[in-house]
User: Which sequence fits this backbone?
């Protein structure tokens, strides 16, 4: 073979090896960039989870509700808690409107259970949802009510109340019904138990319904019992919390970051080894 041909073949072989190495070099560059980002990423600040032991029900059967508490209804009108008593039993649900998890589920399943029980709001009972968040406003209450009230009966018998600006009456109401809750500023959530309270027409606690699923037959019997002035009935405790433990994420962020850093350095070593093998 002539020298010219040998030089041509040798150059061609080098260009082929270089072309074959390009994907590996790109991979090495990407892994190096990822490693640098991982090394210089700011450390996560772990926040301790709140103590949720206080977020529980305490049954206060027969106790009167504070009827003079002031609220604002979904139309922006000033009302008192006692405005909704005197005619029929009241199902009282404590919740907050920015919740996207258990609170809406509790409201929907409560409504569904009443429908399955053949009970009509505004005729057999009143459904009163009260926000524990002092920053909730009537506009949000009106939106939530429109999502739940699909006919005239529910528009008549479903009410959602919020606190007047600058006040927080729900703390007193929660204490009266034995509804323990807390606010976590890191996650901006309330931790509270699921369920609701059935009060008679005179505003005395008659029964508790815990969790999110309620037997329609039991529910119907309880409402009729309260309407007839029956004695309060004790309920089997069930603890289901409305709280998404996103605050725990900070505890694991540092561990996850360390794992990612290890993987990135491993990828760098592997990429360097493959590049060294390709150059041989």
Assistant:
């Amino acid at each position: 073979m002539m020298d010219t041909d040998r030089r041509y073949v040798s150059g061609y072989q080098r260009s082929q090896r270089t072309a074959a190495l390009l994907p590996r070099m790109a991979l090495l560059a990407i892994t190096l960039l990822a490693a640098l980002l991982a090394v210089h990423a700011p450390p996560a600040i772990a926040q301790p989870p709140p103590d949720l032991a206080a977020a529980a029900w305490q049954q206060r059967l027969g106790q009167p509700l504070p009827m003079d508490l002031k609220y604002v209804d979904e139309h922006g009108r000033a009302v008192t808690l006692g405005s909704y008593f005197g005619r029929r039993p009241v199902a009282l649900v404590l919740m907050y409107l920015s919740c996207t998890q258990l609170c809406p589920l509790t409201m929907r399943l409560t409504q569904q259970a009443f429908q399955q029980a053949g009970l009509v709001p505004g005729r057999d009972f009143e459904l009163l949802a009260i926000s524990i968040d002092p920053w909730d406003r009537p506009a949000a209450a009106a939106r939530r009510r429109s999502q739940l009230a699909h006919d005239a009966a529910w528009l008549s018998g479903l009410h959602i109340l919020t606190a007047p600006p600058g006040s927080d009456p729900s703390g007193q109401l929660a204490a009266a019904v034995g509804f323990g809750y807390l606010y976590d500023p890191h996650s901006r959530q309330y931790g509270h138990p699921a369920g609701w309270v059935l009060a008679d027409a005179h505003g005395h606690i008659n029964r508790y319904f815990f969790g999110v699923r309620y037997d329609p037959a039991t529910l119907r019997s309880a409402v009729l019992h309260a309407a007839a002035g029956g004695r309060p009935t004790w309920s089997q405790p069930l603890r289901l919390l409305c709280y998404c433990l996103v605050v725990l994420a900070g505890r694991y962020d540092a561990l996850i970051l360390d794992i990612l850093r290890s993987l990135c350095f491993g990828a760098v070593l592997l990429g360097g080894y493959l590049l060294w093998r390709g150059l041989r």
